[in-house]
Design goal:
Blueprint lengths: L8 H11 L2 H9 L3 E6 H8 L10 E4 L2 E8 L10 E6 L1 H4 L8 E4 L7 E4 H11 L24 H7 L2 H6 L14 H10 L6 H12 L7 H16 L8 H14 L6 H21 L12 H18 L4 H18 L3 H15 L7 H15 L20
Parallel strand pairs: 3-5
Antiparallel strand pairs: 1-3, 1-4, 2-3, 5-6
Helix pairs in contact: 1-2, 3-8, 6-14, 8-13, 9-13, 10-11, 10-12, 11-12, 12-15, 13-14, 13-15, 15-16
Length: 391
């Protein structure tokens, strides 16, 4: 099934520009992530904390210089030596003098050249209308210039949790549409990926030959295996019996040193599943079968980030995303199953998560992706790429 028409920010801006409606035009920009071109070498200086200024790439015409600002979908290909940084509208035009000029979405139907003498008074009067970047979260964005159907779209949808949480288009796999500095920092600081070799190692650990079975996945797998052995539907065990089965596995596999950790994991999983049932992440008698989708979701995000940071080429990123999608289809039955496993994996990954704000946000994203008519999960079949909706 083809997705509903994507939200097209650039089309809205073009319509406002055509009508000469500056308030509407700037009002749209005030709610968006905006991108400013910067030389790659200068971006590296910022990352190394050596840059003293923000050296933008200006556009020159007729002897005049214009600061260039773009919405994501209008970003042009400025060559390998130029990347972009992003922020809210007030950040993008910060420091622009009264007689300096800004060109928004240069080269598109939405292009508008404005002087600082126009921009700064508007910002002063509408500062509360500007959405800071850290508040642009939990948005389901389908980009018209991204993948809308087919294997890559399906695979990218397997990483939709993180995309929606961070208000990034779920269906884009292109180095151009990113904040280069933010992507490098995120890979380094959040995912522990400092360079191309680290990126390859991380991807192998998530979906490749370096994958190691986590305690959570192990005990979930044991529950399913013993359920089949005892003829129980769906793997239903009380926590005490489940922990005893984990002990039995340890004895049979000379893994007594893992028994305490597995018992602790069983207790956590049992408690989390109770909360999942209460919050509608699984049915009233439902349960989580695997947390592999937590690895799949991270793999999609890190593949996308690695491409944006220049740690891999486009073909490699595409192949990694497709592999993540294939794993998701192999080990999950539906989008709802994948989503519950993703949230469970994240909880187990954390340090005794007490269902704080991160969990509450994940629940909201889960329900949004399963209920919003524009969600890829309601428009792309799960098990087979030729299927229609099977959430």
């Amino acid at each position: 099934m083809i997705l509903p028409p994507p939200a097209d920010v650039e089309a809205r801006l073009a319509a406002a520009r055509r009508d000469g409606d500056l308030d509407r035009y700037l009002g749209v920009l005030a709610g968006e992530e905006l991108f400013v071109p910067i030389r790659r070498v200068d971006a590296r200086s910022i990352l190394d904390e050596r840059a003293e200024t923000f050296p933008n790439v200006y556009f020159e015409t007729g002897g005049d210089e214009f600061l260039q600002v773009f919405t994501r979908g209008a970003l042009p290909d400025l060559g390998p030596d130029v990347v972009a940084m992003s922020g809210a509208l007030d950040w993008a035009v910060d420091g622009v003098g009264r007689h300096e000029r800004v060109v928004f979405n240069r080269g598109t139907r939405a292009e508008w050249r404005l002087p600082g003498a126009t921009l700064q008074p508007w910002l002063d009067a509408h500062l509360d209308d500007v959405t800071p970047l850290d508040e642009q979260v939990e948005r389901l964005i389908t980009a018209p210039y991204g993948h809308l159907e087919g294997p890559i779209a399906h695979a990218l949808a397997c990483g939709a949790h993180l995309a929606v949480l961070n208000a990034a288009p779920w269906n884009v796999l292109d180095a151009r549409y990113h904040d280069y500095v933010a992507e490098v920092r995120s890979l380094r600081d959040w995912w522990g990926v400092p360079d191309p070799p680290g990126w390859r190692t991380t991807m192998a650990g998530l979906i490749g030959d370096g994958y190691a079975l986590t305690p959570g996945n192990l005990v979930l797998m044991l529950r399913l295996r013993f359920a089949a052995e005892y003829g129980l539907p769906g793997g239903e065990f009380d926590p005490v019996t489940w922990a005893e089965l984990a002990d039995r596995w340890c004895e049979e596999n000379d893994a007594a040193d893992q028994a305490a950790e597995l018992r602790h994991t069983v207790r956590r999983l049992s408690r989390y599943e109770q909360r999942f049932r209460a919050d509608g992440l699984v049915d009233g008698d439902g349960f989580v079968t695997t947390t592999l989708s937590w690895d799949v979701g991270r793999a999609v995000a890190i593949a996308r980030g690695g491409l944006a940071a220049g740690y891999c080429d486009a073909l490699t990123a595409e192949l990694m995303v497709l592999e993540a999608g294939a794993l998701a289809r192999r080990y999950h039955q539906s989008w709802a199953d994948l989503s519950a496993g993703y949230v469970m994996g994240r909880l187990l990954h954390g340090d005794e998560d007490e269902f704080g704000e991160w969990y509450e946000a994940a629940v909201r994203v889960h329900h949004q992706l399963l209920q919003d008519p524009a969600s890829p999960w309601l428009n792309l079949g799960f098990g087979s790429l030729s299927e229609e909706s099977d959430a």
